[in-house]
């Protein structure tokens, strides 16, 4: 087992397009794990290998790699940044001891950056920032750096300051050593003197850096006040302690695509991010367990991948104890035994077997586990410790799936169900009203890419349809003294059922109520539940457009029966007829579901977003602006939100995020009611 004190396990996170995979490729190339610098644009990176990732030029699932740097074992998790594909980010960072947070020098801190940083902060993981793309047009270091404190509320410590930017970016100033480091074209650098025109600025920045480090520790603060300076040893010690506690976040700059800064970020990871032994205790469903090789074995499955040759692969983080090959483990979630064969180390899609025992912090791939899924805990036999699963982001969009050819419904269901084993942010269900197979996910791209993968792997053609909106119907005006009478005589025993009912509206959300007000036995006691059942079944089929009728009360107060011809079936039909007559006599209206929608956008887009929500018949409930980001809350009809994700994306240049949840039902406007009724009639005719 490698020396755990020098081992590093970290996740690379950041918003979509900031260059996380490029940073990972630079790290792997610099560390000698790969022999070429892969480029996302060329589709030849080690970590984005799925056909859909190559086509989209972006990650859709975490990429896993292990490598050695300066004889120390490192494990890397490259996470997707697109909000369509990072709904399980909380699971990915469960596998890490620290984070490399990538910021784009062109875009700086975006609203989605803030959301992703929130996940890192919630996990309380020590972090390092890498400001990427310093060589690009429109790259601006100051806004990107200042956004770290102003928008994310973190205390950044600038370790390296850029020399030049855009096409003139050629090196950095090492703030600790006071030397200029000039990049060469092979990913290395040479020391030089700081350019004279930067000397005063660097002096001021270094003072601010030392002061920041001193402020994170009372003892250092006292020394700094007394002596006006800290020794290099004290600076390093204070910086390491501040990073571990989460007080300080070191900042490194570079350009991953141009192979500038690989050694700097690798050294920073090694020197400042924590070892697995420094990880806080693992919280279990009951109790906790220290991140130590001396504790009993526990492994958390944070991702499941599909391999065309090896089948299902479970990616696990060893949390405590030591994992050995050829052992039997216990899945404490399913209570099943799992036979562990070979332990495998990942480098993208390549798997390499190892016979080494793996201690805390190790990321290992296990093949062909029978009953283990993402979020499960594997422990030694007779142990029941279970690591608490993190929360997942709520689903944002749902589509109905249909086979291109009739009769292939089960094939479609099976093809998508396989994806659910890999992607815990997908959800598959059937709509009882429409019979549709429904796929819910994090956005339109998420659903489309998932269906693409299912089609490619299962060779079944799948059509995507906008799901039916679950409209409802209700009584606005009730009906008094309505009779439902069913009489049928056709030789032999006949059918007879007769009931009288009142129907009255109830308040929204109060549901259905049936009151038995029969006195004197006008309907025998055994037939009254049948009247209730007949009414409920008729209400389920709807009156106006085939949607269930909700929130009404029925009082059954009179009726009659026949000693021979009455039956439960006859009274069920009578109840159904009474309901239909009441619907004709009273007033039934169509209801539409309203969603509570929360949209977060940069302040500059607030007017556009509010205008768009209003055009969707939305009622804005309020807005709140903080650190350049406005959060707008509104009630919007669900029918108007089914394709909102791509609209928001194009309106805000990908900087807007939203989530929604069901709020309540409201009466539809007449034009919408007419449209829904017409669509229902057309569907029935077809």
Oligomer: single chain
Number of strands: 34
Q: Kindly identify the CATH topology of the largest domain.
A: Rossmann fold
Query: Quick one: CATH class of the largest domain?
Result: Alpha Beta
Helix/strand class = alpha+beta
Order of strands in the sheet with the most strands? 2-3-1-4-5-11-6
CATH superfamily of the largest domain: P-loop containing nucleotide triphosphate hydrolases
Please state roughly what percent of the residues sit in beta strands, choosing from under 5%, 5-15%, 15-25%, 25-35%, 35-45% or over 45%. 25-35%
Principal-axes shape call: elongated
Continuous helix count: 16
* Uncertain runs: none
What does the largest sheet look like?
Answer: 7 strands, mixed
Rounded Rg: 32 Å
Domain count: the total is 5
How many angstroms separate the termini? 67 Å
What does this structure look like?
The chain is of the alpha+beta class and 686 residues long. It has five domains: 8-278, Rossmann fold, CATH 3.40.50; 291-336 and 348-380, Translation factors (Elongation Factor Tu (Ef-tu), domain 3); 397-465, Alpha-Beta Plaits, CATH 3.30.70; 472-585, Ribosomal Protein S5, domain 2 (2-Layer Sandwich), CATH 3.30.230.10; 590-681, Alpha-Beta Plaits. 28% of the residues lie in helices and 31% in strands. The protein contains 16 helices and 34 strands. The strands form eight sheets. The protein has a seven-stranded mixed β-sheet, with helices on both faces. Strands 17-16-21-14-15-20 form a six-stranded antiparallel β-sheet, with no helix packed on it. Helix 12 (528-541) packs across helix 13 (568-585). The longest helix has 18 residues, at 568-585. The protein is elongated, with a radius of gyration of 32 Å.
């Amino acid at each position: 087992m490698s020396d755990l004190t020098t081992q590093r396990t970290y996740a690379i996170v950041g918003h979509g397009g900031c260059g996380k995979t490029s940073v990972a490729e630079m790290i792997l190339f610099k560390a000698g794990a790969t022999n070429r610098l892969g480029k996302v644009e060329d589709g030849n990176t080690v970590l984005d290998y799925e056909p859909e990732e190559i086509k989209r030029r972006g990650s859709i699932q975490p990429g896993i790699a292990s490598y050695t740097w300066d004889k120390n074992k490192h494990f890397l998790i490259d996470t997707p940044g697109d909000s369509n594909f990072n709904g399980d980010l909380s699971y990915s960072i469960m596998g890490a001891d620290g984070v490399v947070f990538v910021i784009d020098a062109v875009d700086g801190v975006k609203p989605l950056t803030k959301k992703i940083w929130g996940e890192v902060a919630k996990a309380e993981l020590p972090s390092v920032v890498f400001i990427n793309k310093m060589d690009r047009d429109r790259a601006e270091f100051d806004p990107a750096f200042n956004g770290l404190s102003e928008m994310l509320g973190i205390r950044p410590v600038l370790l390296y300051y850029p020399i030049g930017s855009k096409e003139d970016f050629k090196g950095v100033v090492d703030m600790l050593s006071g030397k200029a480091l000039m990049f060469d074209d092979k990913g290395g650098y040479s020391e030089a003197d700081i350019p004279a025109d930067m000397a005063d600025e660097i002096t001021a920045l270094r003072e601010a850096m030392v002061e920041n480090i001193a402020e994170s520790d009372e003892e250092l603060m006292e020394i700094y006040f007394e002596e006006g300076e800290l020794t290099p040893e004290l600076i390093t010690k204070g910086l390491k302690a501040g990073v571990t506690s989460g007080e300080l976040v070191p900042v490194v700059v570079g350009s991953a695509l141009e192979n500038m800064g690989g050694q700097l970020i690798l050294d920073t990871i090694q020197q400042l991010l924590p070892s697995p032994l420094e990880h806080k205790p693992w919280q279990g469903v009951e109790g906790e367990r220290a991140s130590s090789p001396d504790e009993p074995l526990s492994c958390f499955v944070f991702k499941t991948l599909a391999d065309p040759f090896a089948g299902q692969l479970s990616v696990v983080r060893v949390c405590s104890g030591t994992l050995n090959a050829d052992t039997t483990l216990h899945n404490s979630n399913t209570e099943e035994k799992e036979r562990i064969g070979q332990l495998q180390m990942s480098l993208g899609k390549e798997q390499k077997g190892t016979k080494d025992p793996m201690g805390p912090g190790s990321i290992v791939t296990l093949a062909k586990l029978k009953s283990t899924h993402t979020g499960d805990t594997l422990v030694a036999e007779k142990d029941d410790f279970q690591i608490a699963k993190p929360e997942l982001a709520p689903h944002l969009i749902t589509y109905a799936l249909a086979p291109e050819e009739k009769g292939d419904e089960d094939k479609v269901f099976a093809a998508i169900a396989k994806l659910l084993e890999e992607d815990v942010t997908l959800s598959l269900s059937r709509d009882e009203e429409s019979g549709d197979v429904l796929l819910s996910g994090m956005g339109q791209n998420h659903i489309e890419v998932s269906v693409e993968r299912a089609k490619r792997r299962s060779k079944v053609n799948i059509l995507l349809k906008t799901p039916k909106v679950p409209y409802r119907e209700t009584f606005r005006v009730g009906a008094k003294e309505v009779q439902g009478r069913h009489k049928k005589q056709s030789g032999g025993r006949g059918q007879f059922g007769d009931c009288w009912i009142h129907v009255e509206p109830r308040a929204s959300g109060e549901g259905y109520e049936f009151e038995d007000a029969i006195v004197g036995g006008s309907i025998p006691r055994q037939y009254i539940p049948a009247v209730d059942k007949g009414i409920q079944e008729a209400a389920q089929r709807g009156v106006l457009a085939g949607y269930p009728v909700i929130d009404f009360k029925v009082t059954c107060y009179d009726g009659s029966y026949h000693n021979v011809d009455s039956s439960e079936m006859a009274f069920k039909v009578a109840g159904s007829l009474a309901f239909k007559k009441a619907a004709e006599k009273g007033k039934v209206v169509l209801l539409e579901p309203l969603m509570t929608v929360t949209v977060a956008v940069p302040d500059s887009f607030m007017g556009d977003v509010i205008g768009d929500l209003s055009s969707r018949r939305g009622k804005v409930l309020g807005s709140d602006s903080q650190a350049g980001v406005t959060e707008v809350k509104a009630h919007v009809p669900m029918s108007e939100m089914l394709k909102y994700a791509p609209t928001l994306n194009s309106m805000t240049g990908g900087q807007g995020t939203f989530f929604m949840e069901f709020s309540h039902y409201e009466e539809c406007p007449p034009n919408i009611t007419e449209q829904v009724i017409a669509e229902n009639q057309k569907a029935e005719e077809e």
